[in-house]
Structure prediction request, 482 residues.
Amino acid sequence: MSEVRVSTGVEGLDEVLAGGLLPGRTYLLSGPPGSGKTTLGWHYLVAGIEAGEPVLYISFAEPEAELRSNAARSGFDAAAVEVLDLSPAAELFAKSETYDIFSAREVETQPTTARIIETIQRVGPRRVFVDSMTHLRYLSTDAYQFRRQALSFLRFVSEFGSVVVTSESTPETPDDDLRFITDGVIEIGFGTRGRELSVSKFRGSDYHAGRHALTLSASGAAVFPRLIPESHSRPFAPELLSSGLPLLDKLLHGGIERGTVTLISGPTGVGKTTLGMQFLVEAATRGERSVLYTFDERVDTVVGRCHAVGSPVRKMIAGGALSVIELEALRFGPDEFANIVRRDVEDRGTRIVMIDSVSGYRMSVSDGLAERIHALGRYLQNIGVTVILVDELREITSFRVTEVGISYLADNVVFLRYLERVIDGTIELRKGIGVLKKRLSDFEKGVREFTITRNGVRIGEPLRLNSILTELPVDEPVHTNA
Prediction:
């Protein structure tokens, strides 16, 4: 029987915490101002309200009216949340006769403690959020007294339920003491692409280590757990997936295997996206859902180009068997993108995923491109999803597999390239297709002519080449077939 957990109410955070918080424990949210600590606190309390639990917000910083106003603007229904407002009143400044208005001596510790005890005993909260312990620190005369008071306070409150407290650690006032006495520590900071969340301590439970993306929006906070491939697996039957083109399947000795990663590389305009879409449309024809994630083009551009070559993409999209999703690389980080893919695969049963292109995806990754693609690809492989990666080469004359050094991640490598062809003294630019790698089977070693017509993709007979690396085909006619 699984252990009962306390949901944080934050999308994705419970997954990072292996299901949520442990009941009756104390947890520290540590981070700089503006990092989102209060927003996470509102999620935590509102989740308690939705579960029918009494909850309490203890505020040492913001007045109740301001708290509730900010909560409403973020979409939280906080009417049932009990708020204990211990923030300094405006009268404190007006009545002060000294310049020492921020000294702990201006706050009477005993009345404050009495109000906390009275409120907790009256409400009987199952969840308590304290914002922030940094302000409570100023009620103590020294660090030793604060640690004793904080430990006593947390033990008292946790007898009623789970406690989440916040802290703003600075070099002048570090929160090492709070990290020691609490059962868990969740840290929020700012990375190269925005807010990040990590768990550095979680007594009595496993958790997902590493930095996870955290976003704040008008609807609150969301956490996007970093993808851990080995945590996901699903049995699937190994089988060959046809492209729908007999000669392309012949080139691949039957097609590409389910649950593999295929890299399609080539220079701009050579037809990489159109070729990849051939596999997606064929899968949709078989009744398997497929998705193209495009970082480089608008949806209507992709759909229009496919329609122009006779591909029934619009029909497939209307029927739900195919989706074309446009993504802005500068908006979505790698963790957010991985979460989008996961939701589609796990919730909608997608069987083929195509990413166009690796160069576009690269813009969303501040570092570790190969690591990110590896994690996403391996996750999809583990659950039997076939992956197609499109990689655009900057140069059209030199022969290389990829611009970013990820060919080792691919089970299959298909290349498209331009070829010079001399006919009666005239140089013509043609396109060729070949296979460089196939882990699970043999493949045809030759290069075939590749063309895109109004009736779709056409694959020709093998070309007789003097050298694939110097692009010099012999002057022989090529017969094209589907």
